[in-house]
Amino acid sequence: MTLQNSPYIGQQKIAVVVDPYSTGCCVAQEIQKRGYLLIAVWTIGFAEEMKTHVPKSCGRMDYFAEIDEAQTLKQTKARINEAAQGREIFCCFAGGEAGVDAADALSEYLGLRTNGTGIANRRDKYVQQELIRKVGLRAVRQAGGPIFSDVEAFLTTEAYPVVLKPTESAGSDGVKLCYTYEEAKQHFEKLMSSQMVNGGECPSVLCQEFLQGDEYVVDHVSRDGVHKTVMIWVYDKRKANGGDFVYFGMKPVDPTTDKDHVLSK
């Protein structure tokens, strides 16, 4: 798996990846190719079935060790150190959406490069919108919470259709376009009694205005205050199999167009 001309071969340092699945496996393997050993940490409640979601291009994942997250950071660190067998821990990163919170907390606790835990619940889509609103950017109208009374006023005043989704999930899991108050209430209750695709119970539900038009995703990386846009895509989502936002694909946006220049700023 390692690159024969890698300058890191022989160092045998450990890269800790939290919940590696889907395209996160590709990132993990790129690190592995550079001479690092992988320890996979599976978070509490992560669905067993999701562990098998490995892209065909990756083949079989080859971990130096696999461990389960413990109840505390101290205990999890002890498990990692035992699995590392005296080797240096080089980095700790999320291998998928489900592992973001744990990777942030664990990397911070281990004293590694980290996003940290300064922003509580930063995977919460409600929190994300309020953060960008706070700094003067346009944000979607919304309401959210774990009980229906938290969103009732919004659902009685907002124009329909509206979008309902779990506050913490990925891949359009549980996202539904509701056309009436009754439909929205029914879906709210369904989400609050369902398990998310990555595992775990739905903590709360987000209700948002429906934004019509194309949906874009911007792949962006930041390090020490330097920010770079590396790719921009436009989603191809359609109604299918009873879902409102089913992924049919993603198309790259031409980097020479005005649209790309606006989105990459």
From TrEMBL:
InterPro entries according to UniProt: ATP-dep_AA_Ligase, ATP-grasp, PRibGlycinamid_synth_ATP-grasp
Keyword Nucleotide-binding: yes
Pfam families reported for this sequence: GARS_A (PF01071)
Keyword check for Metal-binding: no
Keywords: ATP-binding, Ligase, Nucleotide-binding
Signal peptide: none
Protein name: ATP-grasp domain-containing protein
Source species: Pseudo-nitzschia multistriata
Organism ancestry: Eukaryota, Sar, Stramenopiles, Ochrophyta, Bacillariophyta
